[in-house]
Amino acid sequence: MGKQNADKLFITFSFFILFLVPIKFWSQNRHIDSLLNILKSSGQDTSRVIDLYTLGHEYRMLGDYKTSLGYCKQALQLSNQLKFRQGIADSYSSIGNTYFMQGNYQLALQNQQSSLKIKEELTDKKGIAAACHNLGAIYEKQGTYSKALESYSTALVIEEELNDRQNIVKTYNNMGVIFEKQGKYKDALNCYFTALDKLQKYGVSVNKSYSDEYMNIGNAYYREGKLEEALKYEMNSLKIAKDIDNKQGIADAYNNIGLIYARRKKYSKALDNYFSSLKIKKEIGDKNGTSATYNNIAIVYKKRENYSEALNMQFASLAIQQEINSSEGICISYINLGLIQLDLNRMSEAEANFRKALDISWRLGNRNLIINSYRGLATLYNFQASNLRVNSKKRDEYFSKALGYFKVCASAIDSLDARH
Predict the structure, then answer these.
(1) Are 95 and 71 in contact (CB under 8 A)?
(2) What is the pTM of this model?
(3) Rounded CA separation 269/227 (Å)
């Protein structure tokens, strides 16, 4: 495989519905001031505990993780003093949620496990299900997909018992995401269509949930290579998002429609949809979405051999992923930068980025990223070996390295398939 085939390795961002359960749902800006005023005069009781970890949630949603952790840890300390077991469990959960948002998955895991243990002791079924959701989200980020599915399955059993309709739908979605990351698209589609059937069965009126569901189904069909089906469901998602004026949904649908047109090599239509998405994502402050769209625009520019713009867009994407501390996003950006640099004959820069990506992908345990990191290195050495300007001894060395990486790539596929 030479440099001309490197486009096949270029990795896109897509959007999925993930569910991380906070302790309470409040409007951030509306309640922070009132909660702070309440704390000034409140006693050292259980109500204060609730106010403290609720403040932690509010600051977490604003991205102020240091302040969030401060209030959550105060809630935990007071809960321990009062021997308030429910407060201890909820405080651990809130601390775990903040670490999760920071990308500190090990500490997030430890705190959610502590929360789950207490909720089990209290036989708090709804709390157990929520903790299992949070654990599933952490395991998914760590790439431990079997544990993620186990956690979601445990939550689903409880939700069915409690007839918790909203969370039943979300759990099927989350399980679909895991299957999709494993490349098990039929299983993913079964989960998404089950979630859609549940919405209809429960008599839920057309709302954001339907738009999200159509989007998930479209994503799975896209990954399966069924582009006509993918486009149909993404268009349905876009229509509903527009009808209910859901700007996030509109932006995500435009992005995913752009992905489909790009894969069909209709690059002008792809760019039209990407830039429509980018404009909205910037307006609503969606950093991860903005980064994803920069990445996808870079792909189109690369295919059009506009490498200057491709690099600009890809570096813009990487900068945001570093800002929000997304290991998976950083890894994708490194791979894609390497592929652009390979086309520009910047071999040392390309190799450095592929190796950075390989290190991150193994830490994450992400099957697709590991494989694409190895493929990037194999493609690089194969291209260098095919370059007639190098002498025969050096050419043989490059071919040997390329073959070695292709073999490692194949071995990674086999071992990861066995692991999952």
Answers:
(1) no
(2) 0.69
(3) 15
Q: Which of 237, 165, 177 is nearest to 201 (CA)?
A: 165
> For the residues 209-232, what does the mean pLDDT come to?
94
What is the C-alpha separation between 57 and 65, in angstroms, rounded?
A: 9
DSSP 205: P
| 353-384 per-residue burial string, b: 16 or more CB within 10 A, e: under 16 | bbebbbebbeebebbebbbbbbbbbbbbbbbb
- Please count the other Cβ atoms lying within 10 Å of the Cβ belonging to residue 243: 12
pLDDT(8) > 50: no
Q: Are 85 and 118 in contact (CB under 8 A)?
A: yes
Which residues, at least 6 apart from 348, have a Cβ–Cβ distance to it below 8 Å? none
Q: What pLDDT does 319 receive?
A: 95
Which distant-in-sequence residues (6+ apart) come within 8 Å of 283 by Cβ?
247
Q: Which residue has the higher pLDDT, 397 or 239?
A: 239
Structure tokens at 379: 């493609």
Buried b (16+ CB within 10 A) or exposed e, 315-335: ebbbebbeeeebbbbbbbbbb
Per-residue model confidence as pLDDT tens digits over 278-319: 999 999 988 888 998 999 999 999 999 999 999 999 999 999
- Cα 166 to Cα 52, 157, 203: the distances in Å are 27, 14, 12
Distances (CA, A) of 194 to 15, 136, 169, 252, 266: 19, 19, 8, 22, 32
Q: What helix, strand, coil percent values describe the chain, rounded to 5?
A: 80, 0, 20
User: In this structure, how many other beta carbons lie within 10 angstroms of the beta carbon of residue 119?
Assistant: 24
User: Distance (Å, rounded) from C-alpha 249 to C-alpha 228?
Assistant: 20
The pLDDT, as a whole number, for residue 409 is: 57
Given the structure tokens 């996030």, which residue do they identify? Answer: 248
